[in-house]
Amino acid sequence: MDQEVSKTLGELERKLQELERTLTSIDRGEQPGEQSPATGVPPQTLGPPHLIDEAVKPTPPIRPKQSPQGPKQSLQVNTPRTEDLLRFRDRLERTSRELTHEYDELLGRLDYAAVASQPVGPTISFARGAPSLDIVDVEGLRDAATRAFESDPAGTTAYGTSVGYPRLRAWIADRHGVEPERVLVTNGSMQADAFLFEQLVAAGDEVIVERPTYDRTLLSLRERGARLHAVELQPDGIDTDALAALLRGDSSSPTPVRPKLAHIIPNFQNPAGYTLSPAKRQALLALAGEHNFWVFEDDPYIDLRFSGETLPTMLSMDPEHVVYASSFSKTVCPGIRVGYLVGPADLIAAVAKLATNTYISPGMVAQSIVYEFCASGAIDSSIETVRTALAKRVLTLDMALRRELPEAEFVTPEGGYFMWVTLPPGTDVNALHKAAAERGVSFVRGTDFLMEGGENTLRLAYSGVTPEQIDEGVERLAAAYRSL
Which domains does the chain have, with CATH numbers? Predict the structure, then answer.
């Protein structure tokens, strides 16, 4: 067992428990001067949390000063306003979600479950959306690195500019049938997301998100102060009828929503694994044109289709209303940290200025290696290897769930890394998460991907586990479910 990770897990568990107690005390509406069970101090001594320790550790109590002119004066304490408490509670909740995400990732690194009362063997992690090492083309990457330093040592080792490594930028542009001026290469697709949100979304702006959606997207947009509108995700993608009603205003939302953009993961969505249908792609673009908002097509899984029909990108259907993002993390390897944006040239130029002010240039070494990997054709064989493995793994997962957890509802993905599982109403996913950890299996709770609800849902990532591990992991998961 990794002792350092185990120690960190214990600390995270302690802080999550303290956060939960603090949130509970706020929900009870405790007033200043009352003893808080979360911290053992009056609630008014809690300061706004920037780091987790600040969120759960009280500041020292303020003591009245001795007046030189007379006896001690009584201390006047201002009662926090309700909106201040609610704002503080929201920040605590975000901190809790981040810690939970870190906890799940650390749990997957352990050789044995750190919290298991009786060790059952190596932890099987359905939590991490990353490929297992056996499907990463390590030899191809080694060869690509050699070629990068041999063919362009100056460009590979230099700073470069904020738009990215020129030869990779041109390769991406050619792949999408656009001019290089419409491409910006970044340090991973999350960096691309962050730049785009900084450019387009200001505090108070309305943004459409899928329900559920990627937890880091929710976090990033909330940190920017965006007003999020979550629209239900169906097996064929976002509910465009519900979105149309939201845009025009209806009984549930009489004031029409005027979004700055809609964030959409169209292929094998994270966390649900669903794919946006051709009809809904057309409907979404029509709404974007009518109501003048951007469609942010976040598409890192597009090349990982192992069944069904390949669909056109929305970028190719309407380049004026779509900004496209993708990544080489899923097709090359996660550690390479190379992603990109494609959009109108003027928008890309504006984002490039943000990038310049952020880091001068992204990592040229990584981008040069990715270029050599792609230009040699190695990426095509790598994608085929990943597709073949994922197809076998998702079939194993499908069969294992039907056999061990017939109560579970799910849609088998046609590609990507993830499957969304819904358990019967009343299931407590938090209790299931704990029981599963005790049996040496981890997953991500569905509540992490939602602004509210989802207490009976979870996400299973099958990309980093072998078929044998999937069978064993689902057996453990089913045992945990039966124990509740």
Answer: 3-71+80-102 (no CATH), 112-130+381-483 (3.90.1150.10), 138-377 (3.40.640.10)
